[in-house]
Amino acid sequence: MTQRGLEGAWVPVAATVGGHSLVIGELRVKYLVLDSGGYSIIDRTNQVVDAGEYLADEAGSPQTIDIVGREGANAGRTMLAIYQLEADRLTVCYDIEGADRPLDMQSSDDQLLLSITYTRALTSLS
Questions:
Q1: Structural domains in the chain?
Q2: What is the pTM of this model?
Q3: Which of 14, 42, 101, 110 would give a disulfide with 80, using CB separation of 3.0 to 4.6 Å?
Q4: What integer is the mean pLDDT of 4-16?
């Protein structure tokens, strides 16, 4: 599957940090939008609070995605993540400290991982 399969608007449906579930309604993310190599995080007030570029590599196992912040809270930061895309369900997992790319989706004593699962939005944001 190509990067095009990642493109679209995504709504968070589940999240964990360090293996513990988070309350979806408490996340700042209302939508993750992936479009032509760019990403935007839209918060619950419909404001873009984080934006930048992404580069996905579906050839590896696990599949990888580099998220490069250009605006907002993650400006100047690169997050090395892994992802799983199954039909209209996308899970992205990254090390909160940002030091290393996760080897899998499971947190360990050495890495505090944030994992967010999204479903594809049914309507366009335009």
A1: 3-118 (2.40.128)
A2: 0.88
A3: 101
A4: 92
